[in-house]
Amino acid sequence: MDNDIIPQKKPEKIRILPAEGLFNVRELGGYPVAGGYTKWGLIYRAGEPEGMKGEDKKNLESRGIKTVVDFRTAAERRSFAGYGLATVTKRVELPIDAGNLMGVVSGEWTYPPDTQGAAVKMEKLYAALPGEAIPRYRELFALLAEPANAPLIFHCSAGKDRTGLASALILHALGAAEETIMEDYLLSAECLRGLYMGYMETRPQMVPFMTVRESYLLTALGVIRDQYGGLDGYLTRELGADIPHLRCLYTEARSP
Q1: Do 208 and 120 form a contact (C-beta atoms < 8 A)?
Q2: Ordered DSSP codes for 167-231
Q3: Of 12, 34, 181, 215, most Cβ neighbours within 10 A?
Q4: What is the residue range of 121's domain?
Q5: Residue 17 domain-assigned (yes or no)
Q6: Residue 68 lies in a domain
Q7: Each residue of 169-191: pLDDT tens digit?
């Protein structure tokens, strides 16, 4: 097909990319979807690149990443560097404030008295995210619709909330089942454990901020169902996503 994307090089088929200084960097390829699987080597999700080492950079550059989409706010970008990959030809800043947890890490936020309070705060964040993120996610899907922008990596600070919901929406658009979407979302808990281990040990009441839980994503999906008529309606009406076109670009009938 004319709008089919064929990677210039076959990427190594690894879900969680090995990295020394990067956390939560992984592929959206190889997931089962209606009619086949998502293609490897075209869409990546990640956290911020502050700790990127030389080998991390070489690994990402070897995958030919062309486009970087950054969901961090201006304050977050001032604190941490961006992706300095030689292969990148386009950087797009799409700041989303819901999901910005800088205040938690810096200690500026008032700590909830217990883990239940923190979890409730996270669920409120996820309830706000679908509405606040509409213009930014719309731009993300517009970028994905153009084959020349792939391979593309999108990220926030931890790669779990703003990036997590974006990944869920992309996988749904490509035909993934709900259990597959949740599987991908919950991988962030594993990927971020090493990054936040010390912090969580000294402030156990803050653990809900440092990880992901099924209830968080279900909160956002519930808002989308109740306020926007479901995921398909949200994707097509609010985000302008052309679902058949995206499936043509990013899925294939072959086994992974």
Answers
A1: no
A2: HHHHHHHTT--HHHHHHHHHHHHHHHHHHHHHHHHH-GGGHHHHS--HHHHHHHHHHHHHHHSSH
A3: 181
A4: 26-252
A5: no
A6: yes
A7: 999 999 999 999 999 999 999 88
At residue 48, the pLDDT reads 83
The partner residues of 27 in beta bridges, in order of sequence, read 44
pLDDT at residue 83 greater than cutoff 60: yes
Q: Considering the chain, what percentage of its residues have pLDDT values greater than 70? A: 84
Q: Which amino acid is at 66?
A: K
Evaluate whether 117 touches 123 at the Cβ level (below 8 Å): no
Instruction: Give me the mean pLDDT over the 207-218 stretch.
Output: 91
Q: Which of 100, 130, 121 is nearest to 208 (CA)?
A: 121
More confident of the two residues 55 and 226: 226
In a domain, 6, yes or no: no
Structure tokens at 123: 């669920």
Determine, yes or no, domain membership for 133. yes
Q: Is the dihedral of CA 103, 106, 108, 113 positive or negative?
A: positive
Residue 193's CATH number: 3.90.190.10
Long-range contacts of 72-77 (CB under 8 A, 24+ apart): 72/48, 72/100, 72/155, 72/156, 72/157, 73/97, 73/100, 75/100, 75/102, 76/48, 76/100, 76/102, 76/156, 76/157
The token duo for 92 is: 């797009």
Question: Residue 201: CB partners within 8 Å, gap ≥ 6?
Answer: none
Residue 116: Cβ within 10 Å count: 11
Domains identified in the chain, total number? 1
Whether 76 has a pLDDT exceeding 50, the answer reads: yes
